[in-house]
Write a structure and sequence with these properties.
Strand content: 35-45%
Helix content: under 10%
Mean pLDDT: 93
Strand order of the largest sheet: 11-12-13-14-18
Low-confidence stretches: 1-5
Number of strands: 34
Radius of gyration: 26 Å
Number of helices: 1
Shape: globular
Distance between the termini: 6 Å
Amino acid sequence: MRSLLPLFWLFPALALAQPQVQVQLVSGGFEEPLDIDHAGDARLFITERAGIIRILHPDTTITTFLDITDRVGSAGGEQGLLGLAFHPNYALNGYFYVNYTDTFGDTHLARFNRSGADPAVADPASELTLFTMDQPAANHNGGDLKFGPDGYLYIFMGDGGGTGHNRSQNLSNFFGKILRIDVDGGTPYAIPPDNPFVGVSGADEIFAIGLRNPWRNSFDRLTGDLYIGDVGGDSWEEIDVIRNDTAVFMNFGWKCYEGNMLRPGTLCDTIVPDFDFPVFEYPHDIATGGFAVTGGFVYRGTEHPGMYGKYFFCDYISGNWWMMQPDGAGGYTTELLGFIIDRVTGFGENVSGELFVCINETGEVYRVSDACSAFSHSALVTDAAAPTAPNGAIDIVLSGETPPVTYEWSNGATTQDISGVFPGTYTFTATDATGCITTGTYMVDALCNA
């Protein structure tokens, strides 16, 4: 028999408020910003399509880091300076990598150096070309660059545009592929020995195939999983994932499949691979979908706990946003957040894992935040005297709420606190005037089991 004295348990907030995602303006004044990156410090580097990289300093002043407009061609809407990645050891070696289309519309992957005289600017004369690619059209250039947790540089290439081709399934070219190279192992680069086509027929640089235009992509800084936002064609937009522990070659199906839809025609009549399908797709619909996905990031910052571990992405045209996370059973759950802001060309994270987006049409950079971050609760649980004694209680203390608040308990109560309850498990949900939600599950035990 346990003591009959009342027993109190103080629980911190077991579940913080469900995130209510919003964006807050940080700075304007950019010219067609496409991408946001950091170099291991508090600065943000903003890539502009015409060929300039700006630094957005913590005090919101803006300076120019690199200007290569003399060699970048951006006449087409999907051409220009398209991607930026800082070497993991940038603080020491000063190397960073860019992907741009030249004045003839062809792709250049190049390395530049930080200036020796002024570390706040880059040296435009330091360009080292890693490779070039003739582009058959002005669209579907891809262009994103990311260093993976393995230290290799990942290059995301579109299928080159045009019609009637199936370049993404052709292993002899770079179109519609993710390439992976070792920029430290050779000059200008080496091939990772475990790339899937090393020693067999196919381009050694290829890491994955079957993509249409993987415009924006990211690695989860905690798990190393790769999230790919592949822009669709006529009907579907998709998110693909390559998990960090995946040891198999991935083929995402384009141009045979768009999302989960088998496309009509005979392009794939003689191809019978084991395709890898998206973890999420959405239709070309302005209300519940969109027309051009902008891949995002998994939030790993500290300022908004309700967003932690969730992947945020959006549609460029409709302005709809989604929140996705693993479901614990090998798949993913995805929630439509609705319209937040449109014309998002790129997501980025700062050195602390906080998220930002850039808007090409207005030249603005916004911070992604959770309007419900301050809303949470704690609970004081009083156990009942015995298994059949209805004298347990749960007292809730809220913080950061906007009154009025409504309450729902699993036993039907609609008060902030409950008392006179039997031993058992009770779930609590509070919703404040702004729609922020905090919820938790608590157990009332029995002091005496005799």
